[in-house]
């Protein structure tokens, strides 16, 4: 058996299920699920319709790269959302569709890590469990960076010893962060890009919550946006993970993308051709419709805004609670 498998922890929801076994909740109280971060808002009808209209595509094998129309829709969205002129985002070389970011966060690590070199993967703590599992199965040692209140719930890069940076092959960042909703500033992205250049590692930026934010005039910054603004216009050592799951309330569709450094994407593409995980054509069409529309995303944000103000109003009298700049399941 692959010896790395024995290093994996029980997946959190299995752990939770085993902890809850034999416990009967009070029958008179309604159940509030605080486990999996699953959107509760309805999937927009036009996305469902696009999926149904293209079911005829089931007789085709999809390709790993996906339809050019999908990659163009993603490039267009990335350009509009992160203020990067379109010519700087190459849909051929810098974008790959993935079946949700979960599988991509896992599989990209398998293509970056060289296990011969005592590799380290740095990640925030608390973290999305996939980061750790991906690092362990790739033969890397996870290094946890606690995200504490003192540092605005962001990782403190200054606390990382030089010896760890020297062994670091990939760092995960999550902005807006799960579970705190904390958001990276441009200066933090820039500092990390400088470290990545100095020590030669890849920055994997999990941005699956970037579209759920409070202030319409101040959307969270993305890593590619900071890279472009800082003059790293080919996004060297930077990759982002974007998902439709939370943005468009379609976690069951399994649709997202990876974008950034063409070199990293080239190897990732090669890996995926063998891994055999292309996105079904009907899903691709539903995804094109979703990436091309912002109205439903604005409405979604409004629903979260209302929920958050109710939540905060109820909790404020009994505990210290602040409005985070962005949303994630834990905040
Ligand atoms: C931080 C974080 N990243 C990535 C994901 C994966 O989302 P998906 O695979 O639906 O794109 C989740 C899901 O909850 C998450 O919380």
Spell out the key features of this protein.
331 residues; alpha/beta; seven-stranded mixed β-sheet; 12 helices; 7 strands; 12% strand; globular; binds pyridoxal-5'-phosphate
Description:
The protein is of the alpha/beta class and 331 residues long. The chain has helices spanning 12-20, 45-53, 68-82, 101-112, 129-137, 162-167, 186-199, 223-229, 244-247, 262-275, 281-291, 295-315, and strands at residues 95-98, 120-125, 141-146, 168-174, 202-206, 238-243, 256-260. A seven-stranded mixed β-sheet has the order 1-7-6-5-4-2-3, with helices on both faces. α2 (45-53) runs antiparallel to α11 (281-291) and α4 (101-112) runs parallel beside α5 (129-137). The longest helix is centred in the C-terminal third of the chain and has 21 residues, at 295-315. 42% of the residues are buried. The model has no long low-confidence stretch (mean pLDDT 94). Bound molecules: pyridoxal-5'-phosphate. Pyridoxal-5'-phosphate is lined by residues 37, 100-102, 128, 174, 178, 206, 208, 243, 245, 251, 256.
């Amino acid at each position: 058996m692959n010896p790395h498998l024995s290093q994996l922890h029980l997946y959190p929801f299995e752990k939770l299920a085993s902890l809850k076994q034999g416990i009967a909740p009070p029958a008179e109280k309604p159940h509030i699920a605080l486990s999996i971060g699953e959107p509760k808002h309805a999937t927009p009808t036009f996305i469902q319709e696009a999926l149904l209209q293209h079911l005829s595509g089931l007789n085709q094998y999809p390709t790993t790269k996906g339809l050019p129309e999908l990659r163009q829709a993603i490039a267009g969205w990335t350009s509009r959302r992160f203020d990067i002129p379109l010519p700087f985002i190459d849909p051929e070389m810098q974008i790959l569709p993935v079946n949700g970011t979960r599988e991509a966060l896992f599989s990209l690590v398998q293509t970056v890590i060289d296990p011969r070199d005592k590799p380290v993967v740095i990640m925030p703590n608390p973290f999305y469990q996939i980061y750790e599992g991906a690092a362990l199965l790739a033969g890397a040692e996870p290094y946890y960076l606690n995200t504490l209140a003192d540092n605005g719930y962001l990782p403190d890069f200054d606390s990382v010893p030089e010896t760890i940076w020297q062994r670091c092959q990939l760092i995960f960042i999550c902005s807006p962060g799960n579970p705190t909703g904390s958001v990276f500033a441009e200066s933090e992205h820039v500092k990390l890009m400088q470290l990545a250049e100095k020590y030669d590692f890849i920055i994997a930026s999990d941005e699956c919550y970037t579209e759920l934010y409070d202030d319409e005039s101040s959307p969270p910054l993305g890593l590619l946006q900071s890279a472009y603004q800082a003059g790293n216009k080919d996004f060297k050592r930077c990759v982002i993970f974007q998902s439709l799951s939370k943005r468009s309330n379609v976690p069951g569709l399994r649709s997202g993308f990876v974008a950034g450094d063409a070199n990293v994407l080239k190897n990732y593409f090669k890996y995926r051709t063998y891994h055999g995980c292309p996105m079904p054509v009907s899903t691709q069409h539903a995804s094109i419709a979703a990436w091309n529309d912002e109205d439903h995303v604005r409405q979604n944000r409004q629903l979260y805004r209302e929920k958050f103000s109710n939540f905060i109003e109820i909790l404020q009298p009994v505990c210290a609670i602040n409005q985070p700049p962005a949303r994630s399941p834990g905040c």
